[in-house]
Amino acid sequence: GAGAGGDTDTLSLGSQRVREAPDHDPELPPFDMSKGATWVYPSNLPERAYQFNIIQHALFKNTLVALPTGLGKTFIAAVVMYNFYRWFPKGKIIFMAPTKRLGAQQIHTLNHPHPHTHTH
Fold first, then answer.
1. In terms of CB atoms within 10 Å, which end of the chain has fewer, N or C?
2. Using one digit for the tens of pLDDT, what is the confidence trace for 86-110?
């Protein structure tokens, strides 16, 4: 449907709304409309409200996550990256880490995904 003013389409994502550009830029990867109306969160791990809330926020707004060691920054990054991969399957995701150890930790997390998820 047409958004305000009729110049853009909008897609409802939970309580968030994402605007699509009226003309797709061929330089950008296409958005997968069949998956773009939802986002997923692993359901086979205990849900920590603060992680869920940070992930939900990071999916729709630029976000800097600063948490003490052991509170799930790698997990948060993995869930956000997974959802962007679902939405933009032909896009590229770059994860940068200040140390090889943290890079290796993220690679391990991404290579051992959490298959049980629920959508939002």
1. N
2. 999 888 888 888 899 988 888 887 7
A 10 A CB-CB count for 51 gives 21
pLDDT (0 to 100) of residue 118: 62
As a whole number, mean pLDDT of residues 54-81 equals 93
With the C-alpha atoms ordered 25, 28, 30, 33, is the resulting torsion angle positive or negative?
negative
What is the arithmetic mean of pLDDT over 53-82?
Answer: 93
Token match 């109306």: residue? 37
DSSP β-bridge partners for residue 118 = 41
Q: How many CB atoms lie within 10 A of CB 47?
A: 10
**Range 90-97, long-range pairs (CB < 8 A, 24+ positions):** 90/29, 90/30, 91/28, 91/29, 92/29
